[in-house]
Design a protein that fits this description.
methyltransferase, Rossmann fold, about 270 residues, tRNA-binding, S-adenosyl-L-methionine, 7 strands, binds S-adenosylmethionine, 7-stranded mixed β-sheet, about 30% helix, globular, alpha/beta, tRNA (guanine-N(7)-)-methyltransferase, tRNA_(Gua-N-7)_MeTrfase_Trmb
Length: about 270
């Protein structure tokens, strides 16, 4: 079934249960406003414009207990992400079953077939990884219009914006995934202390944050080089998204900036 653009009227109406079956609350009476089962935890990490899902696949074993979602506007690309995640989950199930059978010295009832995956270079698919990729999913959405329909105030701990499509013409500035008006939305859904990760190969984009307006300065603080070096998510962002691999192949530059969302100012 192809991924349709289904926008919930509020975060409490979103059906997350079908995306993260391993995290559905065992109590069947716990139902959200949309009539679907609740999860035992909230989604906390979002990849905006996730493309083919390389970031999610790279982060999944690093943060196995954190629910992460990629949002993508192109239907065929999102279909690919969904199939990729399903194949990875299935592969993990087969590997676990085989390992369990081996450890109990049973003869496997049938030779397990491990689904082929395009992603073997990530090195995570032939071993059992923490989280079994049950913690990642993709949804089709226009993040520039509907982010607050999916996530509540202060819900997220990380937002990734990796290699957003550049739009240089002034009339298109409003259409940029990283823009001043969108910053208010990102700050709304991020927890205080939460991080917004950005990476681009377009230098002009990177310098966008150099002269922040007052509103932006109030909301965000830039992480230091030492903090970036200590964060394994930065390495995934630099080397495991499909676009980052393309930039590596072309010997391009990668500009990383990570912003910490400050605490809300005190009301006078
Ligand atoms: N982040 C991925 C990576 O690093 O490989 C993909 C980068 S690609 C250059 C930008 C992606 O953002 C495209 O897949 C595009 O379809 C998606 N995109 C653009 N505008 C979007 C929007 N408003 N909402 C969701 N996705 C969007």
């Amino acid at each position: 079934q192809r991924a349709r653009m289904r926008t919930p009227i509020s975060p409490a109406h979103m059906d997350w249960a079908s995306h993260y079956p391993a995290f559905v609350d065992p109590d069947p009476s716990k139902i959200n406003l949309g009539g679907t089962r609740k999860l035992i935890k909230d989604v906390e990490v979002v990849d905006i414009g996730c493309g083919f899902g390389g970031l999610l696949v790279g982060l999944a074993p690093l943060l196995p207990d954190t629910l992460m979602v990629g949002m993508e506007i192109r239907v065929s690309v999102l279909d690919y992400v969904r199939s990729r995640v399903s194949a990875l989950r299935l592969k993990q199930q087969v590997l676990k079953k085989t390992a369990a059978e081996k450890s109990t010295n049973q003869t496997p009832s049938e030779t397990p077939t491990v689904p082929e995956d395009e992603d073997d270079e990530v090195g995570s698919t032939t071993t059992i990884v923490p989280g079994n990729y049950e913690n990642i999913t993709g949804i089709r959405a226009n993040t520039m219009k509907f982010l607050p329909n999916f996530f509540g105030h202060h819900q997220l701990s990380k937002i990734f914006v990796c290699f957003p499509d550049p739009h240089f013409k002034a009339r298109k500035h409003k259409a940029r995934i990283v823009s001043e008006s969108l910053n208010a939305e990102y700050a709304y859904v991020l927890k205080p202390g939460g991080l917004m990760y950005t990476i681009t190969d377009v230098e002009e984009y990177h310098h966008w944050g150099d002269e922040p307006t007052e509103g932006i300065r109030d909301l965000w603080e830039l992480l230091s080089e030492e903090e970036l070096d200590a964060d394994p998510c930065v390495q995934v962002m630099k080397f495991e998204t499909e676009e980052s691999k393309k930039v590596t192949r072309n010997n391009g530059n990668k500009y990383v900036a990570v912003f910490r969302r400050k605490a809300d100012p005190e009301w006078p």
